[in-house]
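Bumping my old thread because nobody answered last time. Still need a sequence for this structure:
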């Protein structure tokens, strides 16, 4: 059984914040880095076709929620921060139905 994982892209990379304006990681950068790590380490935990949900500014006006494979979320414009990424594991049929609802056609 594979469980889902949440990646909070609002966690700020320290090298960008020492004495500088705060910069937040985007979903696009998170996906890019996660796929690079998986390619280098080869653990098989996820890949370009792994279903994910990208969320931006949840609860605020203009929030964005998009579901799709990692490779598709890489190209979505989620707008300004704060961003979060959920990497889906084994899903209940109701969760699968909701992700289908949230998918954006390429």
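Sorry it took so long. Here it is:
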């Amino acid at each position: 059984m594979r469980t889902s994982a949440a990646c909070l892209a609002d966690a700020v990379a320290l090298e960008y914040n020492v004495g500088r304006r705060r910069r937040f990681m985007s979903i696009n950068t998170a996906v890019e880095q996660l796929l690079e790590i998986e390619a280098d380490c080869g653990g098989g935990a996820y890949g370009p076709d792994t279903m994910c949900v990208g969320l931006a500014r949840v609860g605020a006006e203009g929030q964005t929620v998009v579901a799709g494979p990692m490779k598709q979320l890489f190209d979505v414009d989620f707008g300004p921060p704060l961003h979060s990424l959920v990497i889906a594991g084994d899903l209940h049929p109701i969760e699968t139905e909701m992700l289908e609802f949230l998918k954006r056609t390429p």
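The longest strand covers residues 51-56. Let me know if any region looks off to you.
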